[in-house]
Amino acid sequence: MTTVIGLTGGIASGKSTVSKMFADAGVPIIDADKIAREVVAPHSRVLKRIIAAFGKQILTVDERLDRRRLGQLVFGDPKKLAQLNDIIQPVIRQVIGARIVALRAHDTPIVVLDAPLLLEQHYEADVDLIVVVTVPREVQLSRLMARDGLSLAAANERINSQMPLSKKVAVADVVVDNSQRLEETRLQVVNLLDKVRQNAD
User: 10 or 105: which carries more pLDDT confidence?
Assistant: First the structure.
């Protein structure tokens, strides 16, 4: 039997770091962000629909999706963000579903679905366990500003465009506190995997 762990968290909470810890422990990762990049490859059906909705201004000179430019257009505008999600999310869901089915068919014991919008896009029914990575908001802000070169106002806008971390924590089966040293975070991941394996036996 396969246990699917749904991994999510706020933007810049360190979810990718935790995902890598699962991968380092030998757990296969289905990365929703990676799939999102795959489905908007140049000349893809999804990219054509995004261009039709938002114009060619969201393309780079080599006709790839300019994610930063698109982000500037949709973050802070709930209607445009919803429009983008209506185009891209059903395709991402289809790919994720197919990958979960394939891993279940191979009796993979544990799989992690790493998805920033796990709860916003209602993947609860597709996973057996919801794990939320948390950090204090001030840590989120400083990481996001440093990582993406954003102003404080732009970083706040990005965070506010997502479901509040407190709401994610409220529905979590497990909360991973990523505000301390990395080794402490890793220990939480190891303990979680031990519990999942024990429950499967």
Answer: 105
- CA distance readout (Å), 19 to 7, 8, 16, 32, 48: 8, 9, 5, 12, 31
- Residue 129: how many CB atoms within 10 A of its CB? 18
pLDDT (tens digit per residue) in 16-66: 999 999 999 999 999 999 999 999 999 999 999 999 999 999 999 999 999
Intervals of CATH 3.40.50.300 along the chain: 1-28+108-200, 33-107
pLDDT digits (tens, 9 = 90+) for 113-152: 999 999 999 999 999 999 999 999 999 999 999 998 999 9
Q: Is 199 helix (H, G, I), strand (E, B) or coil?
A: helix
Asked whether the beta carbons of 76 and 161 are under 8 A apart, the reply is: yes
Q: Per CATH, the architecture of 1-28+108-200 is what? A: 3-Layer(aba) Sandwich (3.40)
Annotation: CATH topology of 33-107: Rossmann fold (3.40.50)
Q: Cα(34)–Cα(81) distance, rounded to whole angstroms?
A: 19
Residue at token pair 């529905």: 171
> What's the whole-model pTM score?
0.89
**DSSP letter (8 states) at residue 124:** G
- Give me the residues paired with residue 145 across strands: none
Instruction: Print the SS3 string covering 63-105.
Output: CCECHHHHHHHHCCCHHHHHHHHHHHHHHHHHHHHHHHHHHHH
